[in-house]
Here is the input.
Amino acid sequence: MKNENIKAIIQSWAPDLEFTEDSKEYVTVVVPREHLRDFLRKLRDDEQTQLDYMFCLTGVDYPKYLEIIYHLESTTLGLVLVVKVRTEDREENCVIDTVSDLYRTAELNEREIFDLLGVRFEGHPDLRRLFLTEDWVGYPLRKDYVDPVNIVNR
Amino acid sequence: MRQEELTIRPQGKTEEYFINMGPQHPATHGVLRLLLTLDGEIVKKVDPDLGYIHRSIEKMTEHDTYRQIVHLTDRMDYLSAHINNEAVCLAVEKGLEIEVSDRVKVVRTIMAELTRLSSHMLWWGVTGMDTGALTTFMYAFRDREMINDIFEETCGARLTMNYFVPGGMMWDIHPNFQKRVKAFLAHFKTKLPEYDLLLSDNVIFRKRTEGIGFLSKEDAISYGVTGPGARASGVHCDIRKKQPYSAYDRVEFKEIIGTVGDTFDRYRMRILEMWESMHIIEQLIDNIPEGEILEKTKAVIKLPKGEFYQRVETARGELGVNIISDGKKSPYRMHFRSPGFANLSVIDHVARGWKVGDLVAIMATFDFVIPDIDR
Here is the structure.
């Protein structure tokens, strides 16, 4: 019931946004990357949604693009919304705006995604490798990554 | 009172300097390295350096079957092993659309609460040790031993249990299980007040923790802090209440919420949570219903195409399991939202302006388990 409400609210703001049926549990919406920051700020500040808590940030590698999945929840209203945003390609335009100033938890999570998947977050205050060393070559969580030392073929 | 307000600065200028805390520091509870920027003894910046024990569990899941993945997860937060296993099992069951029997649900809940008790006990022991009281460690391990024995009898292991599998549990509980859990509860009810006498009411400990390291409600939410650390700041973040799973919807318990949000409040949350955990177990231990131990699943589990998310409350906060499946026997991508990772991100914010000794106390009450952060 709650989920249907949030879908209606978002459709009243932007009627042409694409909703996906990937998750049966949560409403999932795909946002164009140029509107990501405005959209998340509205979701956070609007009276009807108040999605102030980002409880999960996932990066996924697809053959043509990388996808970032934001799981948002409202601590006051109990609403949950999943927002997805896609990069243009997997190489030089693998860039998405940072949301670390809107949700502070994103700061470390975006560093993790940069480290393991190679998505560059525009405007991030301190975008460095998090787990791996600075001189590491490649992004291990990408599907085409080949580890020259520990080769796993299954 | 913050140190800046007290210090009378000598003529001449002071200089900031770097110091490494860890990766082999006892107060970091594992191989975590903190790059501290200090001015005298005052913390100016905390920069965590991670990856010393990163095992790339998320990459390994892309090669493993769903049954195998369950066994990887108790290596993340090894003190909440049962709860981590449960999270993956629930996520897989959500994908398969099977519902486990009431017996499994109740046993899972009891095991999860025993895990929480055992984790909080160990935390209490090391918190005392971090703040200079070595005795607490011995007390906590004495009582924790009883829980480990209960786990060993039923699961065969004491730390990484691997007792839950998708569809249920590996085997039934040991015939002695109920008797021994009740004996433990009777024992621990007399011992928990001792914990208060020994540490909670200790003047030195109170001076080290009261009024130190405040975290506001807004910051806790923005930084994604969960668990007792956030509840001390007044955030209602207990998944057991918000989105009940297993048998939490049929037991009565209080969500412990603090008001102050300082280090002592975070400490107090966990002591009170231990009483609530015992209360939950008491309601269930005499009413374990009969039922199937293991629902029938195919030998190789394949989840349908889609995304399946499961949230559970571990001893440290919210654990999220995000499975993105493309219909094969391994997930296309699997992500763990670990509570320790989010809790670590707030350390820099909380510790700024406090002394190095306070930083140790602050870190103790956020209860980090490093494999959980590094995954």
Summary: The longest helix of chain A spans residues 2-13. Chain A is about 20% helix and 25% strand. The two ends of chain A are 43 Å apart (CA to CA).
